[in-house]
Specification:
Blueprint: H1 6-15, H2 17-22, H3 37-54, H4 70-81, H5 89-100, H6 114-127, H7 135-148, H8 178-190, H9 198-208, H10 259-271, H11 279-291, H12 305-319, E1 324-325, E2 331-332, H13 334-345, H14 364-375
Antiparallel strand pairs: 1-2
Helix pairs in contact: 3-14, 4-5, 4-6, 4-14, 6-7, 6-8, 8-9, 8-10, 10-11, 10-12, 12-14
Length: 381
């Protein structure tokens, strides 16, 4: 029997899925396309040199101190995941900066964004936790983040659309959103919080209410008003359904689905143990099949593009469908495609930067940290 090439297999699955399914198990397992170790190293090493050149003496990687320790935590996680040890100067200095921002209440923050920065710090400390060095820090930060959840540190009505969500951690009042909530979920699970922990269950309740899917899990009015294009995807927060000024509001009174939020929601469902046969997961995947792209952040264009690449990478990795088939039946080696996209956007000095200034991604330090983290998921499994 002659060897079947990957190109031959993709032709078969593209034009004759039934025939391909019939041969499943009879053909040799094919190696999925992903960047080589040498290709990855060349791109990553340039980026690391750039970050090291931008790092301050105290270890902070943010260009503006008002950003807080979140960017440094993001970069530390990305560097460790890409094989740079805790003794690498840029990593060691970054960890030192994070340690200096640990507060007596357990939070890791400076001037704000406590949920976001502490969640990212938990993940960074966990990546660096050889020998249990950061066990106490992680435990205290976990308790702090749990206390920021709506319905966590205070009583709340489970019917309230805010229930289970997390905002930026403003002590004077907060509006929960999917962005902070998915970072919180990932951090808690990384810290060892069980999937059946009340905090995780509450978060899944909130995330379900961010989905354009009318179901037993989402009784919010906006979900019943979703357009065909939005069905199954996720939006930033259900609380915008009553905000006439929200740019996400549709003419019918629904809320627009967005790429970064849909991948963030899918990732959270899968991380939290929601099964792939669950209607929420199936609906989110169906939306992604219709909107598969690396050219933009669907629903937001170029805004938040590098954030999008990270949520895309984590969700696709957790989903485990390789190659990934879009709604037209085209097969995508997403790891290779993501690598090629990021390599093509890398600047000569090793950095990345978004031409769109939204969400601070025009700052090369942030875009580079996001890009490195996304690249860590492109390795062959």
């Amino acid at each position: 029997m002659s060897t079947l090439t990957r190109r031959d297999w993709l032709k078969i699955t593209a034009v004759a899925p039934a025939a391909a399914a019939a041969t499943e198990g009879l053909l040799p397992r094919l190696s999925l396309a992903a960047p080589s170790a040498d290709d990855l190293k060349a791109v990553i090493d340039k980026a690391v040199k750039f970050l090291a050149s931008r790092q301050k003496d105290d270890g902070d990687l943010a260009p503006d101190p008002r950003v807080g320790p979140g960017l440094t935590a993001l970069a530390v996680s990305a560097l460790i995941r890409n094989g740079y040890g805790t003794d690498t100067p840029v990593v060691a200095k970054g960890l030192g900066f994070l340690e200096k921002n640990v507060h007596p209440d357990g939070g890791v923050y400076s001037q704000g964004l406590a949920t976001y920065t502490t969640s990212l710090a938990i993940v960074a400390f966990k990546e660096a936790n050889a020998g249990g060095k950061y066990d106490k820090v992680i435990d205290a930060a976990t308790k702090f983040v749990k206390g920021l959840q709506y319905g966590g540190g205070q009583k709340a009505d489970p019917a309230d659309p805010r229930y289970g969500g997390a905002g930026y951690g403003n002590p004077k009042g907060d509006r929960p959103d999917l962005s902070n909530t998915h970072f919180m979920v990932e951090a808690l699970l990384a810290a060892g919080v069980p999937k059946d922990d009340p905090a995780i269950k509450r978060a899944v309740t909130f995330i379900s209410r961010c989905q354009n899917l009318k179901s037993e899990y989402n009784d919010q009015p906006f979900a019943a008003k979703a357009t065909d294009d939005d069905k199954g995807g996720l939006t930033y927060t259900p609380l915008e359904q009553t905000d006439d000024k929200s740019p996400r509001r549709t003419a019918a009174g629904g809320l627009r689905s967005e790429g970064g939020m849909t991948y963030a929601g899918l990732k959270s469902f899968l991380y939290a143990g929601v099964g792939k046969d669950d209607p929420r997961v199936k609906a989110a995947v169906a939306w992604i099949r219709k909107h598969y792209t690396l050219a933009e952040n669907p629903g937001q264009g170029q805004a938040g593009l590098f954030y999008y690449y990270v949520t895309f990478a984590k969700a696709m990795d957790a989903l485990g469908e390789e190659p990934f088939a879009d709604a037209k039946g085209a097969k995508h080696d997403w790891r290779q495609e993501l690598f090629d996209t990021l390599k093509g956007k890398q600047k000569p000095d090793g950095s990345w930067a978004n031409t769109n200034r939204a969400f601070f991604e025009s700052a090369p330090e942030l875009a580079t940290a996001f890009a490195l983290l996304a690249l860590s998921y492109t390795r062959k499994k």
